[in-house]
Amino acid sequence: MNIRRVGELGLIRRIRDARNGVDDPGVVLGIGDDTAVLALEPGAVLLATTDLVVEDVHFRRASASPRDIGWKAVTVNLSDIAAMGGRPRWALVGLAIPTSTEVEDVEAFYDGLREAAAPHGVAVVGGDTSESPRGWFVNVTLLGEHTGAPRLRSAARPGDAVAVTGMLGRAAAGLALLEMGAERARAAAMDPAAAEECVRAHLRPTARVAEGRWLGEAAGVHAMIDCSDGIATDLGHICRESGGGARVRLDRLPVAEAAREAALALGRDPIEWAAGGGEDYELLLTCDPASAEALAAGLRAATGTRLTVIGEIEGSETGIVWLGPDGRRVAVRAGHEHFGG
Amino acid sequence: MNIRRVGELGLIRRIRDARNGVDDPGVVLGIGDDTAVLALEPGAVLLATTDLVVEDVHFRRASASPRDIGWKAVTVNLSDIAAMGGRPRWALVGLAIPTSTEVEDVEAFYDGLREAAAPHGVAVVGGDTSESPRGWFVNVTLLGEHTGAPRLRSAARPGDAVAVTGMLGRAAAGLALLEMGAERARAAAMDPAAAEECVRAHLRPTARVAEGRWLGEAAGVHAMIDCSDGIATDLGHICRESGGGARVRLDRLPVAEAAREAALALGRDPIEWAAGGGEDYELLLTCDPASAEALAAGLRAATGTRLTVIGEIEGSETGIVWLGPDGRRVAVRAGHEHFGG
Predict the structure, then answer these.
(1) Which fold has domain B153-340?
(2) Rounded to an integer, what distance in angstroms lies between the CA atom of residue A338 and that of residue B138?
(3) Does B225 touch chain A (CB under 8 A)?
């Protein structure tokens, strides 16, 4: 059914009526008035972040379903709250879509959004819908809270170990597979399960929320950021905000096996994907080097997620120096930036 | 200078470096980390609202400057916080623009945004920028706080007086003037000052923030909403949420003199603009009828803004009944809704 048949108010009613799956006493008033009314935990500070997800910039309708779009629009924001060590709480959703859109696609978008949000206890408490002259535009604002000290990009210290959660490179591999098209991807003859794993990492990333909260409270963790734009760009942010440089050992980067397989099949460099690809939504942190081993063991025990030391912070503003297995400097392409700047 | 020459990070740096004009101890951490970190007043609840402003849907670049767009994107949200009786505090800004955009236009957009926000003590604390394949897409999320009881749409009671702040109809008149084009508007030969007043009301609306806070604390005020979609639609929201109907006397609607002049010049009905036009961003409220006179006097003394009783709430769900000067029912076109539903 086309959205013109139900209209904006009909659409809002459907969104509001759909069960959120989150029973949250902090939502004093949800969707349906001029604003949402929300209650933070006593003593908590508020965390707020917003991210755009734009058709033909961040995704293509040919490969991303409305459910995927909703999922990802929430997850990229969950990842920002995770990087502060915070607790995500509430989402507000701006959605502009062409008038030719089907109601079922809009509902699937909100289903994907809630599917990603609900396991973290995040309720959708507000939003706005509009016609779009061309393409889907999604803007999710996520609100969270922190009862301790948020982990900042600026807190790295000279001598800190640089570590990253999980495995890298799958999202970039998935994007490469999607961009070459289904037929050519099949012709590359890689393991279908590995290809599917990479594509899924791109379309349905996971935010490290539990890991962020654990690391945010752990002793020895200093700076933290999420790997949305790739290690190269995001470690660059830490260095710039903290006033230092970094050395990264490329052979220590935890490259996912599926990304290695995809790189082999497509004739690409898996290290480039892992270092510069972005969208893995792992957490990148710096910590007291003496604490690194205990942090890795503790994080694994608490969440099942690995933590890998990949380099160290330097006092001088050298930028990021990438080292090969032989200890020599190598060049790595930087991460993604809009407007080609 | 084209935005491609400074890139996304250059753009964010320019936005961050620009003085906000707001010195806010509640901003623990502003733009520049994964999330903003914000501190509410002790005991306050959080208010959150988000609104889309889309090129060729909400504005046209031919008539709205980037500064106008920024101004309006904040003001429509300020109005939502005002309608709760709350205090606006912080804005997050999603902006998607074509790569052909000039840096100066982006800076003018943020200037307009801050120009509207700063007088209310609102700081821009976060945002996201993206390329847009076509047109400008703006999504502003505004966070506010309330230390008392927010004024809800659902709080109207049978017998309540229905009242509205300020004067109506100018924004709809301004839109009509803009849509007919400068040449034909000039040919309509209306007073240029009145025409300018109407166009300005459309492009640079004012949110009734001080009025909302005063009314939000005043005894006798029950339901409140902002007139973003027109009296017809917005009073309809109050009736639906409160489970009642309403009678409105059309001859009591406070139609702005400039809107009357525009209507005369264009051969349009000023009452239709005032009742159904929308975007006046006045506050519509219901109150104890015995308090109406004192509320009007108090609001005028505190803010200089008039409050006009235009009708009353009825116990039965009759919808909105419009009455002419002779007390007979008349038909009025409803307000704006997206997707033509």
Answers:
(1) Phosphoribosyl-aminoimidazole Synthetase; Chain A, domain 2 (3.90.650)
(2) 17
(3) yes
CB contact under 8 A, B35 and A226: no
Give the dihedral sign, CA B142/A284/A71/A336.
positive
Both tokens assigned to B284: 């519509």
Strand partners, B124: B91
- Total Cβ atoms within 10 A of residue A17: 8
What distance lies between CA A17 and its chain's CA centroid? 28
A201 CA: distance to closest CA in chain B (Å): 21
Distance between CA atoms of residues A282 and A170, nearest Å:
11
B83 contact A CB<8A? yes
Contact with chain B for residue A35, Cβ under 8 A: yes
Where in chain A does DSSP place strands (E)? 27-29, 36-38, 45-54, 87-97, 123-131, 137-146, 161-165, 221-226, 245-249, 283-287, 307-314, 320-323, 329-330
- C-beta separation of A335 from A232 below 8 A: yes
Residues of B in contact with A25 (CB under 8 A): none
Q: Model confidence over A90-133: pLDDT tens digits?
A: 999 999 999 999 999 999 999 999 999 999 999 999 999 999 99
B3-146: CATH topology: 60s Ribosomal Protein L30; Chain: A; (3.30.1330)
* Closest chain A residue to B126, measured at CA: A49
**With contacts defined as CB-CB under 8 Å, which chain B residues touch A10?**
341
Nearest CB to B49; choose among A40, A126, A135: A126
Tell whether B130 is within 8 A of chain A (Cβ): yes
Which of the 8 DSSP states describes residue A203?
A: H
Answer whether B73 touches A (CB < 8 Å).
no
State the pLDDT confidence band at B341, using cuts at 50, 70 and 90.
very low
Fold of A153-335: Phosphoribosyl-aminoimidazole Synthetase; Chain A, domain 2 (3.90.650)
The structural domains of chain A, with segments of one domain joined by +, span 3-146, 153-335
Of A39, A50, A128, the CB nearest to B45: A39
DSSP assignment letter at B75: H
Q: Using pLDDT thresholds of 50, 70 and 90, give the confidence band for residue B288.
A: very high
Contact list, B84 vs chain A (CB under 8 Å): 33-35, 37
Chain A residues within 8 A of B8 when measuring between CB atoms: 337-339, 341
Query: How do A161-165 and A283-287 pair as beta strands?
Result: antiparallel
CB–CB of B321/B247 below 8 Å?
yes
Neighbours of B13 (CB within 10 A): 14
Of B32, B38, B153, the CB nearest to A45: B38
Q: Which of B2, B15, B50, B234 to mutate to test the interface with A (most CBs of A within 10 A)?
A: B50
pLDDT tens sequence across A182-222: 777 777 778 999 999 999 999 999 999 999 999 999 999 99
